[in-house]
Structures are given as C-alpha cells and as structure tokens.
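> call design_seq(struct)
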C-alpha cells in the first residue's frame, strides 16, 4: 500500500520559480500542485485539501497578500499554514505577510535547507495543532455530558471570591424558588436559614479559603419561607497559579 502523500500548493507568477521549488520538494512524501496566479491558486484550494501553501507575493492578477486574506476568510481553508515567497526582505512587506495570516516567509533565491526546514517545521506544528484541537473538542463534548449528568442530579451554584452568586443551575433555582435574575449577583446567604449555627458557615469559609473541600449538611430557606435540607460539597476553584478565583457548591437535596 502506497503511503499517503502530503499535498503542497506552490503559487508563483514565474514558471522558473515553480519548477525550482517543485524540484527542490520532489519527494515520495509530497504531492506538489502548482499555480501561476491568485485566481488559479484559489481554484486549486477548492479541489485539494492542502497541508501547506507556498505563496508568492507578486503575481499578475492579485498579490499574495490578497490571496492569503481570502484563504483565511474561508472556514474550510483558514487553518492551512501559508508561507510567503518573496524577493524582498523589507520589514514592511514581512509585517504585512504576518498581518494577513502568513506563518512564515522564504526569500528568493531559494536555499534548499532553509525551505525544507521551514516547511517541515510548519507541517509538524500544523499536525500538532490539529491533534490538540481534536482533543479539546473531545474534552468539551465530554465535559458537557458530565455537566448534564450533574445538572440532572444535583443543585449547583458558583460564587465569586466574595460569595456573590455568579451561576446557578435550573435545579438550584427551582428548589430555592428564585429566578435566575433574582439570584445572579446576590450573596449566597440569600438562601441561608437562621436555624443554621454561625459556626457551620465559619467552618465552611475557613476550610474553602484554605483551598480545601468542605462537606456538610445545610438547612436552606426558600423564597416563600419554607426550607429544604441539602448534603453540600463546597470547593474552591484555583487558577494555574494556585490562587482561588471562585467557589462551587454541589448539593444533594
């Protein structure tokens, strides 16, 4: 079985440059497709799923900057790395290449080692980015399902570090009798029942401020004055520096 070739698009207004780059990249690993104009390049983008594009700045119909902008505006091609080919190394041209979405640039005349190194580096980065994106999407899908399970079975609320409510799930709102609008921004003690000893809340705050998880039974009051009892778990949420950014409570009524 033949190995799958990596499709690369080379776009240059001059045939000699296309021939030179194609010869330089000749390999069993690559499938080289060439185009001599911006319109031809965009047409090829519709036919192939390219792994990378080598794009000349100067071309007869539209310049490479415009071609790159159109590639990045298309949701199907926006993630394809574009390396600019340029005969100029002036700072303004290079800056514009990055502004329109280019990831790198190669100056003419071509140096084989430089061209191959940059292409391989960006192919590797692109592949890693795809893997990370896929993993992130998978994790988001799983987290959404976990959240659904939690929302179906528990009363969940979040507060900022001052104890003001920033999130409450439907189950929390329903049992408390408050609407989401009435809960948001209010101190969590809006549901605190007077029968609960102050020592319980003092112990809770000391525990979670120490970055530990608190467990306990709490009697809460509803908007209409009735009460409900929950088995609560309250824990601090930490940022990457280990600092508390919010608190989350999950309770079983």
């Amino acid at each position: 079985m033949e190995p799958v070739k990596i499709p690369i698009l080379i776009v240059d207004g001059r045939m000699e440059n296309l021939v030179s780059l194609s010869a330089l990249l000749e390999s069993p690993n690559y499938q080289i497709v060439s185009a001599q104009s911006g319109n031809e390049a965009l047409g090829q983008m519709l036919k192939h799923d390219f792994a990378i594009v080598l794009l000349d700045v100067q071309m007869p119909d539209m310049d490479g900057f415009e071609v790159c902008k159109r590639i990045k505006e298309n949701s199907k091609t926006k993630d394809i790395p574009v390396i600019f080919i340029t005969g100029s190394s002036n700072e303004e041209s290079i800056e514009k290449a990055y502004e329109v979405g280019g990831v790198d640039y190669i100056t003419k005349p071509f140096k084989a080692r430089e061209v191959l190194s940059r292409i391989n580096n960006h192919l590797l980065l692109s592949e890693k980015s795809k893997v990370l994106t896929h993993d992130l999407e998978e994790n988001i899908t799983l987290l959404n399902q976990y959240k659904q399970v939690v929302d179906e079975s528990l009363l969940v609320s979040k507060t900022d570090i001052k104890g003001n409510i920033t999130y409450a799930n439907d189950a929390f709102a329903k049992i408390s009798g408050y609407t989401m609008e009435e809960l948001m921004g209010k101190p969590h003690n809006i549901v605190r029942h007077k029968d609960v000893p102050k020592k319980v809340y003092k112990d809770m705050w000391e525990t979670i401020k120490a970055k530990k998880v608190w467990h306990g039974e709490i009697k809460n009051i509803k908007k209409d004055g009735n009460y409900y009892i929950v088995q609560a778990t309250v824990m601090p949420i930490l940022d990457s520096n280990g600092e508390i950014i919010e608190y989350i409570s999950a309770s079983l009524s």
